[in-house]
Amino acid sequence: MSEQTSDASTGEARKISPLVKNLLEFGPVVLFFIAYLKLKDQVFEIGGTSYEGFIVVTAGFVPLMVLSTLILWKLTGKLSRMQVMTLVVIVVFGGLSVWFNDERFFKMKPTMIYLLFGGLLGIGLLRGQSYLRVVMEEMMPLQDEGWMILTRRLCAFFFGLAVANEVIWRMMSTETWVYFKTFGLTAAMFLFFMTQAKLFQTYGTEEESEAE
Length: 212
Known about the structure:
Blueprint: E1 4-6, E2 13-15, H1 18-39, E3 43-46, E4 49-52, H2 53-76, H3 81-100, H4 103-126, H5 131-136, H6 144-171, H7 174-194, H8 197-203, H9 206-211
Antiparallel strand pairs: 1-2, 3-4
Helix pairs in contact: 1-2, 1-7, 2-3, 3-4, 4-6, 6-7, 6-8
């Protein structure tokens, strides 16, 4: 993502350190992973109810994610729609897991996020539009055809990730799912965009803009 974001109050661009940005975006996930490894085999008695380590870690992750997102908003002056929707899903499904003392809600969170993103992109495609362009145009200037191709591919990719998450959390151990969520999903997203290099070269508009 670009280091520059627009200032919501002044309209001017703000710059933040890439290190700070990455810490705020990925720090809570890394801390969730570390805390889970330390507490996964423990059971906590709170208010007369027994909570496994996974639920306790989830209870800490949700407010931490809210705090980091608010700090990012304060520093940059802007949050993307995807960031806002992701935070809402985290709060809802994380909260349900803690409230009902049921880890399944939190494990379904990535499924809901990817179905939401894939569904929104799909709706745009049915209308002949690329909603992805609205979010990412400043980062990746592409021709119209390039945006439509990338949107179709990313839409299918999101649905694929949703299916993968469902298969893993339902058929494998909680620890396997935590590794998948922490590293697998991030690696999959990175590899997806790496494989789109040819598309960016073919439909990129940056060189054309510079020539003009």
